[in-house]
Design goal:
The protein contains 15 helices and 7 strands. By secondary structure, the protein is α/β, with parallel strands linked by helices. It has a 5-stranded mixed sheet. β2 and β3 form a beta hairpin. α9 crosses α12, α12 packs across α13 and α13 packs across α14. It is globular, with a radius of gyration of 21 Å. The chain starts with a strand and ends with a helix.
Length: about 350
């Protein structure tokens, strides 16, 4: 068995005090069958205590009125883990924020998601490029089966990912140039004569923003967002790219690897690459709006925004559907005039 993963994973340690145990609040915590069978073997008192907090119909834990998990204590620690051990956590709790994919019977891919603020620190806040390793022990119990989704042998897919990541980690080029080269690596032909359409770029991102945050934006409100974005875009993004270039690179590399691009979504490699680029532009749009709102954009502000946006894209269909719709609706020339700035 081979598990290909970023080296940062071995440094991760869950600490609910840093993030107020965000993953133990307002989320749907599924009680998987394997864990359920373990609980059924407990003595009667312990078993009844646990199942009193289980919605039997939905097979999920019943959250408190505050939205917190019933097993979260006042010190932001899990009572189940304290009393019984990590092996008695539900599979989703034991695995998160790790995301694990089965590529074939022998090869697996594992990364971490930015929806966990502690994981985000490990992923984003280092100057050196993200490095990878292969290990032979798989501890995660929640595994997504990608054996039918990726139309390549595992070794070829992983090699393809490594080559794409090298493009994203080429620090001799700007982020825009890296994205352009990535698209061309997957077969796109982007003419140097295509002029960047800033106004339609802003309009598309305002639409995606509204869908992501489930905001029923009026035409007037959308126009306000577009105007504010266009007025502040360069003065926010230029220092963002200069001061947080390593953070942006690490974000792009982790997203590409963690979501199994260029086969993250149904469609060919070119389509998936367009989705990837559009999702990153949504990050820039949110960064500009954050800077306007706070009248600044500190590293802390940016990380908080990235975690919140990742949470939305992971757990709300609207934003990612809007991103995919945009990537699908336009031909190559129009798409790249709106999403790639030479």
């Amino acid at each position: 068995m081979k598990i290909f993963r970023p080296k940062y994973i071995k440094n991760f340690k869950c600490d609910g005090k840093i993030c107020d145990s965000r993953c133990c609040r307002d989320w749907r915590i599924v009680l998987d069958e394997e864990t359920r069978e373990k609980y059924l073997k407990f003595p009667a008192a312990a078993r009844e205590k646990i199942f009193s907090h289980v919605d039997e119909a939905a097979q999920v834990f019943k959250m408190k009125k505050s939205g917190a998990c019933p097993f979260l204590n006042e010190n932001f620690l899990c009572k189940l883990q304290i009393e019984h051990g990590e092996e008695f956590l539900p599979a989703i709790c034991q695995s998160f924020p790790r995301v694990t994919y089965k590529l074939d019977e022998k090869n697996f891919l594992q990364a971490m998601t930015l929806t966990c603020p502690v994981a985000a620190i490990e992923i984003l806040l280092h100057e050196k490029p993200i490095d990878f390793e292969t290990i032979d022990e798989l501890k995660a119990r929640q595994i997504f089966d990608f054996t039918e989704k990726i139309p390549l042998p595992a070794e070829k897919f992983l090699l393809q990912q490594q080559n794409a990541i090298k493009i994203l980690q080429n620090r001799e080029l700007s982020i825009n140039q890296r994205l352009k080269n990535l698209c061309e690596f997957f077969g796109e032909k982007i003419s140097l004569e295509i002029e960047f359409d800033e106004e339609n770029h802003a309009a598309a991102l305002a639409e995606i923003f509204g869908e992501t945050y489930d905001a029923d934006l009026t035409i007037s409100k959308k126009n306000q967002l577009i105007t504010a974005y266009l007025m502040n875009r360069k003065k926010v993004l230029t220092p963002l790219h200069e001061n947080f270039s390593a953070v942006l690179e690490n974000y792009l590399v982790n997203e590409f690897f963690m979501r199994c691009y260029p086969f993250a979504f149904i469609g060919d490699e070119k389509f998936n690459c367009r989705v990837f680029v559009t999702a990153y532009r949504a990050v820039e749009f949110a960064a500009v709006l954050t800077a306007i709102s706070k009248r600044r954009l500190t590293l802390e502000d940016f990380l908080e925004m990235l975690c919140a946006l990742s949470d939305k894209l992971d757990h709300s269909r609207g934003g990612m559907e809007a991103i995919k719709d945009f990537a699908e609706l336009h031909d190559a020339e129009i798409f790249y005039s709106m999403m790639i700035e030479n």
